[in-house]
Design goal:
alpha+beta, four-stranded mixed β-sheet, 2 helices, 23% strand, binds zinc ion
């Protein structure tokens, strides 16, 4: 792995979550546009740097793709570099190899997490914030290092 220590710490959207933790271990992210309470079945916003993970949202901003920095399919696409420090050509290289989400379009570094009701951004992409939201029915390719299952076979 590289030795870069830089981590994004909140852009225009990320880092400014209007967040409430619920007694049952979930959290609600309030949309600043429509005030809808988006429920996430996670106890807190996950920190990709602590977990050595990458994350992307789909075009619709309603699914999350999560993978490991150490996933062989990821390393073969961009090299041994953490996902939050990829340059633009490495981002494009990875995006072009990924299969589309089963719903809501492509996985892309420019996609924010979006409100499930009004579709305005509620949290930034990995280029803005190291914290991510895991939508229901997301793709966790970290468990089992299986990002290769979501890579185009012809890429
Ligand atoms: Zn909203």
């Amino acid at each position: 792995m590289g030795t870069q220590s830089y981590k994004p710490d909140g852009g225009e959207v990320g880092g400014e979550l209007d967040l409430v933790k619920t007694p049952d271990g979930n959290m609600v992210v309030r949309c600043r546009n429509c005030a809808y309470g988006n429920i996430f079945h996670q106890p807190y916003p996950y920190h990709a740097g602590f977990g050595n993970q990458g994350f992307l949202y789909n075009d619709a901003g309603n699914r999350t793709l999560i993978w490991s920095t150490f996933d062989p399919a990821y390393c073969s696409a961009v090299g041994s570099v953490h996902p939050w420090v990829l340059d633009s050509s490495q981002r494009l290289a990875l995006e072009s190899k990924l299969l589309e989400s089963t719903t809501g379009g492509r996985w892309a570094f420019g996609n924010p997490a979006r409100c499930l009701q009004c579709h305005e951004p509620i949290s930034g992409p990995i280029t803005d914030t190291i914290y991510y939201l895991q939508y229901d029915d997301s793709v966790d390719a970290d468990e089992g290092l299986k990002l290769g299952q979501f890579i185009r076979s012809s890429a």
